[in-house]
Amino acid sequence: MTTSSRAHSFNAAADQYAASRPSYPPALFDRIGQFTSRPLAGARVADVGAGTGIATALLRERGADVIAVEPGDAMASKFHTTLPDVPIIRGDGNALPLADASHDLLTYAQSWQWTDTTRSVPEALRVLRPDGALAIWWNTTAFDVPWIREQHQRIAHHCGVMPTSRVRPDDSDAIRLAGLSGLRVARRQIRWSRVVSLDTHLANISSRSAFLVLGEAHKRAFRTEERRRLNELFPDEAVEEIYVVDVLVATRP
């Protein structure tokens, strides 16, 4: 299965994605403001790979003058339904449909991995103003929580992918893997959690790209078995999902 196929798989589950995916904690946006030494309020921001608008909505709440960039038809349609007054432009991080030196901040929430960094880094630098910044982040797995670690391993096995290492890459490796070598990069991890219903949790984990490309029978079998396991752990069907947001903010040196 190609990376492109996985990237576009979200279009088949836009409603599920919007309804079940986790948001981001306020501390994330506090950190971005600290790293860039400027408030989000009034900043001209492009949220790239915006999906259904989870991060875009939070940026707007902080007062940012935000637009969205999104390649997927169904994701863009859901975005427009959710945030009808926020401009959305079709495109992706490898070829930004934005003018030179036009933005203070570019954000990539869960979307940087779908770019080709040999193209997306130069594109970001082209679009950013001289004092602008690039912020990329992910909700990553809290591997120190036993049931979350074990579920991660089951999902990887079922989807035929390699489980992620329990150890996050150190700063130099993270910067290299993100293609940001040569830029001034600040990095933080922010722990947070949410409590959701068992149904929402199952919808969330089955909205991941490696899962979406599976056949319906395979997806249904996993959800059935996972529901049985989690009912034993959470008999009231209220599941606490714990995340660690890994955020990197890059500026020109």
Relevant CATH superfamily of one domain: Vaccinia Virus protein VP39
Sheet bearing the most strands, described? 7 strands, mixed
- How many strand segments? 7
Write down the overall mean pLDDT: 90
Tally of DSSP helical segments: 11
- Tell me the span between the first and last alpha carbons: 38 Å
Uncertain segments of ≥5 residues (pLDDT<50)? Answer: 1-7
What is shown here, in short?
This protein is of the alpha/beta class and 253 residues long. Helices cover 41% and strands 24% of the residues. Helix 4 links the parallel strand 1 (44-48) and strand 2.
Keywords, please?
alpha/beta, Rossmann fold, 7-stranded mixed beta sheet, 11 helices, 41% helix, 24% strand, globular
Structural features, described:
With 253 residues, this protein is α/β, with parallel strands linked by helices. The chain has a domain at 3-141 and 168-194 and 242-251: Vaccinia Virus protein VP39 (Rossmann fold). It contains eleven helices and seven strands. The protein has helices at 3-8, 14-20, 26-36, 54-61, 73-82, 117-127, 146-159, 171-177, 198-205, 209-212, 216-233, and strands at 44-48, 65-69, 88-89, 103-109, 128-141, 184-197, 238-251. It has a seven-stranded mixed β-sheet with strand order 3-2-1-4-5-7-6. Strand 2, helix 5 and strand 3 form a beta-alpha-beta unit. Helix 2 (14-20) crosses helix 9 (198-205). The longest helix is centred in the last third of the chain and has 18 residues, at 216-233. The chain starts with a helix and ends with a strand. The relative contact order is 0.16.
